[in-house]
Automatic annotation (TrEMBL):
Keyword annotations: Cholesterol metabolism, FAD, Flavoprotein, Isomerase, Lipid metabolism, Oxidoreductase, Steroid metabolism, Sterol metabolism
Transmembrane segments: none
Protein source organism: Ilyomonas limi
UniProt keyword annotation of 4Fe-4S present: no
Name listed for the protein in its UniProt record: Cholesterol oxidase
InterPro entries reported in the protein's UniProt record: 4Fe4S_Fe-S-bd, Cholesterol_Oxidase, FAD-dep_OxRdtase_2_FAD-bd, FAD/NAD-bd_sf, GMC_OxRdtase_N, GMC_OxRtase_C
Cofactors that this protein relies on: FAD
Family to which the UniProt record says this protein belongs: Belongs to the GMC oxidoreductase family.
EC number(s) given by UniProt: 1.1.3.6, 5.3.3.1
Gene3D superfamilies cross-referenced by the UniProt entry: FAD/NAD(P)-binding domain
Length: 794
């Protein structure tokens, strides 16, 4: 398995550039700045998933779904994220590669009239050439192309033929649309190996065959190839200024630091911070930064748009559509090819009034959720009839419904279902804010805008041409106040000419407030800076805007990015089962007493100088950890020590050793901790600690394994002068919490997880028994032997 991300313990204290998010904006920025020779760190909230890791059935898909709503806050980082507000629901991807993992990868430009709108900054309106260059650079990497109809292995698809039929009946133009999908095996545009599309139709739950040109197939491996470092499961919270640098504060998923109420970690950016969390993520990040004191434009959160998205279905049509992705049924030879999620478009954008224009596309339902959608539509349409249809046509439709009920989604009515997606022009007046600590979208009566009635009418007309039953988006109805669902959220950090009209300037540089100044080195590059609905799929424009901005920023820095694309060969990384747990220890520390641990502990207590850390420890390969005498593990976490820093410190280069032999006494063993401490103002200390595990005349296993003797040095290693010493201890309550955090990670299945935990437990138990139990029985045995010898002598 090829892997792009590193473990969080490898995070360095500082980088030239820190990027938050790995969608189109973040991935492009990572590649371009790395190519300019800058040290780049990319932080991604989601997991890294590669082809083969994506769900292919409903059970697996359900585990990846997370919902944010008034009554429910997502605590994980599942791949499929739904953000539900009063008026609109947003669906987006959460993983390395962002929404590129779960979109249809359509690359289409807006019509020229979109860029004449004064909501665009003057620099873009007056210099369309630079934006066109951005489109060109994005096309070079993303490699969009139409479905190669009638090429070997790529027959004309039933769903595309049906869309052509609908277009003809509507008297609107049909065409094949450019999509970021590979239709040939071999190296892609950046020299990364890909497979060709196999027409499975599962694009939007994640391509398991490596054919979709997701960002993990191009920009991200290119960034890694040029030295960028990627870290996943990182939840960036806010940014603040530290001298001439920026600090990005973050938390970790799956580390259980919340169990100990641990402080946030941070990483330093010495030149640039690129916020690229998408329309929702970037806006929330800046809103939280504003709460922490960052001055921003009053326009922050405004002009949110759903890009005029409307979903619908043409159900139980008179001809097969084959629009249900195959999922775990991929090997079933009876199933017809589905094709990429979107292949065709009815281009309805050329209207006298731009606001009446629409992009009308067909789609497919991915296999993992095919059964769920089939059952839902069977219930919704049970009492629906085909208007104007003959008695026999109605009977045939009824039979198809029964067939779907009996045989499942690949037969009958649901196999004859066309999926629609329309993008149009809403008013773009949504507003995002923080409500009770969570991101909230307010947009009163958005679904009642006239454009959505027009879109609904278009889908109804398309369905009539196929003699089917038109099914509206399930939430777009009077009873639910015409709520909407969008898969293309834009805005919230919109570009503008000044802080009175936008949050950022034309290259995403964040305005400081009400005047025209900007925060040096703080940029937003993603869909959140797009200032209005585009009326078509937005990924190509987001990419072009980002490419343009990166080129200008790099030029302003006096640098130049390379343009060649050497072959990319990343080492295969297999699953390496490991064990992870989080530990808190507390105690006292003295900067005055630097020799005697006990005296330093007492002095620290008298001086009210506490010392506390919360560390997440990972064993690495559990097989190596339990057999290698060095037992190396990694650590990441925070340290609170007021005597050293008035704010929590983040650690780096953390190394943990369990039960290593004491160099001074082979009969004794140590648990060793070493790590670099990094302060918010740029200072560094080095922490060296150990627990003395030894058998003596007292049975003191708990004391030995819960007492840590620590020495802190100035600088980044033990050659610096001593900053102080102390003792830390584990409280019984914290130890109980620690046990709840222990888990196996990087395992393929539950059985492998159980085996990993068993190995760790056996290793720990063996060392405890060898150190504390065996000597006791050995002493007893020796005494008995001595007694027996004495009795024989007598």
């Amino acid at each position: 398995m090829r892997k792009l991300s590193k473990h969080i313990s490898e995070l360095r204290p500082s980088y030239d550039v820190v990027i938050i998010g790995s969608g189109y904006g973040g991935s492009i920025a990572a590649a371009r700045f790395a190519r300019a020779g800058l040290q780049v760190c990319l932080l991604e909230k989601g997991k890294e998933m590669q082809p083969g890791d994506f769900p292919d059935n409903m059970s697996e898909a359900a585990k990846e779904m997370q919902v944010n709503a008034d009554s429910r806050t997502a605590t994980g980082n599942g791949l499929y994220e739904f953000h539900i507000s009063e008026d609109i629901t947003v669906f987006k991807g959460c993983g390395l590669g962002g929404t590129s993992l779960v979109n249809a990868n359509v690359a289409i430009k807006p019509v020229e009239r979109v860029f004449e709108d004064t909501r665009w900054p003057t620099a873009i309106r007056n210099d369309r050439k630079s934006l066109e260059e951005g489109y060109g650079k994005a096309a070079q990497v993303l490699a969009p192309q139409p479905y190669p109809v009638n090429a070997p292995g790529y027959p004309e698809l039933a769903k595309t033929k049906a869309l052509k039929k609908s277009a003809a009946a509507m008297k609107e133009p049909f065409s094949y649309v450019d999509i970021n999908v590979s239709f040939a095996d071999g190296p892609n545009s950046v020299g990364y190996e890909q497979h060709k599309c196999n027409n499975c139709g599962d694009c939007v739950t994640g391509c398991n065959h490596g054919a979709k040109n997701m960002l993990i197939m191009n920009y991200l491996p290119d960034a890694v190839n040029h030295g960028a470092e990627i870290f996943c499961n990182v939840d960036a919270k806010y940014v603040e200024r530290s001298g001439d640098d920026w600090l990005v504060y973050f938390d970790l998923f799956h580390a259980c630091r919340d169990v100990f109420n641990a402080p946030l970690l941070f990483v330093r950016a010495t030149k640039l911070v690129i916020v690229a969390g998408g329309a929702l993520g970037s806006t929330e990040f800046l809103l939280r930064s504003k709460e922490k004191g960052l001055s921003v434009s009053p326009m922050l959160g405004k002009h949110f748009t759903g890009n005029g998205d409307v979903l619908g279905f043409g159900y139980n049509c008179c001809e097969p559509i084959n629009g249900m992705g195959k999922g775990s049924h991929f090997g079933d030879a009876k199933l017809k090819p589905v094709g990429p999620c979107i292949t065709g478009v009815i281009d309805m954008r050329d209207k006298p009034n731009l606001a009446d224009g629409m992009t009308f596309e067909e789609g497919s339902i991915p296999g993992p959720i095919a059964s769920f959608v089939s059952r839902s539509l069977l219930g919704l349409t049970v009492l629906r009839h085909l208007e104007g249809a003959s008695f026999w046509d109605k009977m045939k439709a009824t039979m198809r419904r029964w067939v779907s009920e009996w045989r499942g989604p690949y037969y009958g009515a649901t196999n004859n279902m066309q999926t629609y997606l329309i993008m149009s022009h809403d008013d773009g007046n949504g507003e995002m804010n923080l409500k009770k600590g969570r991101l909230n979208i307010e947009w009163k009566d958005v679904g009642r805008q006239p454009i959505f009635e027009k879109a609904s009418k278009a889908m109804e007309d398309a369905t009539k041409a196929l003699s089917g039953v038109y099914v509206k988006d399930v939430v777009w109805n009077k009873e639910l106040n015409y709520k909407l669902i969008t898969v293309h959220p834009l805005g919230g950090c919109c570009m503008g000419d000044s802080a009175s009209t936008g949050v950022t300037n034309h290259i995403g540089n964040v305005f400081t407030g009400s005047n025209g100044t900007t925060h040096p080195g703080l940029h937003v590059l993603d869909g959140s800076i797009v200032p209005l609905p585009l009326g078509t799929n937005p990924l190509f424009t987001i990419s072009a805007v980002t490419e343009r901005a990166c080129k200008i920023i790099i030029q302003q820095m006096g640098l130049q990015a390379t343009e060649d694309y050497p072959p990319i060969h990343l080492a295969d990384v297999g699953y390496v089962p490991a064990v992870q747990f989080t530990e808190t220890m507390k105690g006292f520390f003295s900067t005055k007493e630097t020799d005697d641990f006990e005296k330093a502990y007492e002095a620290g207590k008298q001086e009210d100088s506490p010392f506390q850390f919360t560390l997440t420890i990972k064993t690495g390969d559990i097989n190596v950890f339990s057999s290698n005498p060095g037992h190396p593990g990694s650590m990441v976490g925070t340290v609170i020590a007021p005597a050293l820093s008035d704010k929590p410190m983040t650690i780096s280069n953390g190394v943990f050793n369990l039960f290593v032999k004491d160099a001074n006494n082979p009969l004794h063993k140590k648990m060793k901790y070493s790590m670099q401490l990094n302060t918010h103002d740029g200072k560094h200390y080095f922490f060296d600690g150990y627990k003395q595990v030894e058998h003596d005349k007292h049975f003191d296993m708990w004391s030995d394994t819960s007492t840590l003797y620590i020495t802190v040095y100035n600088g980044t290693n033990t050659t610096g002068t001593k900053a102080g010493v102390g003792i830390l201890k584990i409280a019984p309550g914290d130890f109980a919490k620690q046990m709840t955090t222990m888990k196996a990670v990087d395992t393929k299945n539950k059985w492998e997880s159980i085996k990993a935990l068993e190995k760790f437990s056996m290793f720990f138990s063996k060392n405890i028994i060898d150190t504390y139990i065996k000597p006791v029985f050995g002493n007893i045995k020796n005494k008995l032997v001595d007694k027996e010898k004495h009795e024989k002598v007598i």
